[in-house]
Amino acid sequence: MLIHQVLVSMLMWWSEQNSNIQLQTLLAHGDMTQQTLLSDLLGLMDEASAIAREYYRKADELDVIKKGDSTPLTEADTALHHLITGHLRSMAIGLPVLSEESNLEEIATRHSWKACWIIDPLDGTKEFIEKTDQFTINVSLVIDGRAELGIISIPCLHEHWVGIVGNGAAIFSEGKGLSGRAVKTQSYIPPNPLVMLASHRHAPKRVEALMSSLTRSFGEVHRLNSGSAVKFCDVVSGAADVYPRTSPCSEWDVAAGDALVRAAGGSVTDREGHQILYNQRESLLAQPFVAAADPMIDFAQIIFAGR
Ligand SMILES: Nc1ncnc2c1ncn2[C@@H]1O[C@H](COP(=O)(O)O)[C@@H](OP(=O)(O)O)[C@H]1O
Ligand SMILES: [Mg+2]
To answer: What is the domain range of residue 225?
Structure first.
């Protein structure tokens, strides 16, 4: 075998043995493998992304409703919610779904769920309405409170970013099935400037406070703005080193990115440096967290100590 063929097959973690024990146990119930699961999910995300783009083309004409937390809702959010929840519920592993657009009745028993899908059918609805291209579709599989699998689809790039904790992460192009390219996070190398992610909507004071705590440890800190869960993909791609979040968001905004970044070799922790648990509390609002490309740096301590 040629060296490059050996390298390519080594990088294709998704065609190898699934070493995520939690996922293995769950898939055994549905007689599924990691490959059949991913192939099914990529087909679903192809369809969802195409529908998202159709709505995006006519975004100026969509009715926008303000929700309780004052975030917007469009017909696109609702259509994607129905498509994705319907498909996930019908899969052989038969798991419940917690979606940003679920009604209270659908998730009334959520605390008794050992495993579930947590999804945001359209993350970055404001970006969608304002046509910045930076909206995503987030799907995560949570087992015993931990995000084990995450997919962030970016319809405007025709890409699906996928991670399974313990196995790896990869980028799959739309319509190309399982022929993807593996990705790993990169270590921070001093004295390079540290790149910190934020959104242009986040309160300036909050962003400045985060930047100054990082400046004390790293010297030069650059800010990169991205909308929605694209920020997690930026951590994985090497475009940024760290994504600290103290502004409000919900568990469906975080879980897929959490699994993706950890699967790619990075870290995602709460302010105490602990792994994030999902669907465990009364509130579905996410706690402050930090996602980082280099897991050897204790960003939680640097950012949150003394706050
Ligand atoms: N006041 C608030 N409460 C809860 N979540 C909020 C919020 N303001 C913004 N968000 C969340 O932040 C997401 C956008 O993140 P960012 O500002 O980093 O791009 C929104 O995703 P949706 O568009 O899915 O609602 C929304 O869920
Ligand atoms: Mg969202």
So the answer is: 194-304
